[in-house]
Design a protein that fits this description.
alpha/beta, Rossmann fold, five-stranded parallel sheet, two-stranded antiparallel sheet, 8 helices, about 15% strand, binds zinc ion
Length: about 220
Amino acid sequence: MRVWIEAVAGLIFPAARPPRPWPRLERPFCERCAEPFPRPRPESFVCANCGKRKWSLTRLRATYLEKGSVREAILAFKYRRQFHLRPWLGRWLEDGFRQHYAAEHWDALIPVPLHPDRRRKRGFNQSAEIARWLGQRVGLTVVEALRRVKPTVPQARLSRAERLRNLRGSLALVGGFDPQGKRLVICDDVFTTGATADACARILLREGAKEVVALTVARR
Ligand SMILES: [Zn+2]
C-alpha cells in the first residue's frame, strides 16, 4: 500500500523536491551528544550536560540541525504522509552515516520503535522507513529489534526529566534478535534530548551489545 501511494505521489509531483537542506551539523560539537559549540575549539570536548549525565549511547550524531527545510521535510513526511520525501530523508541520513560512522564496522541498524497504536494510526514508522533506505545504500541489515510495550505521551513538549519518566519501562527487546557482542546504530528522524535513543541503547547493552550509537537526520 505504502509503495503504491509513494509511486502515485511520484507521478503527481514528479518535480517535488525539498529545498536544499541546511544547516549541517558541523564541528565543533560535543563528542558525546553533538551539541554545537559557537566558537572554534582546537581539541575535542564533552559539553557540561554530558559531563554530568550517564549515557548508554557512546555517541549521538545527526546530519543537520532541525531547522528550516529539514524540519519542514521531517514534519511533512511524518505527519502529512508526504511519502515522496522518503528518499530525500534517507539520503540525508546516509550523508550523516558517511560523515560520522562509515569508517567503522557496524553489525546492524536499529530503528526507534513506535507504539503499535501510533504505528497503526500513522500507517508507518518513519524511523524504520529511513533506516531501510540507509541499510540498502550502505549494506547493513535493519533489525526492528525493539518494541514499545506501553504507549508514551508524545515527547515533544516534555522536559528531560519528564521524558525519562515517560520512557521508563516503555521499551522491550523483540524475541529472535540477539544483540550479544554487536555494534549497533540506532536510527531516528530527529533527536531532541536523546532520551529515547538512549533508552533503546540501554536495553541493547543490557542484553550484551558491545557498543550502541545513534544517528538521526536532524538534531534539535
Ligand atoms: Zn554533550
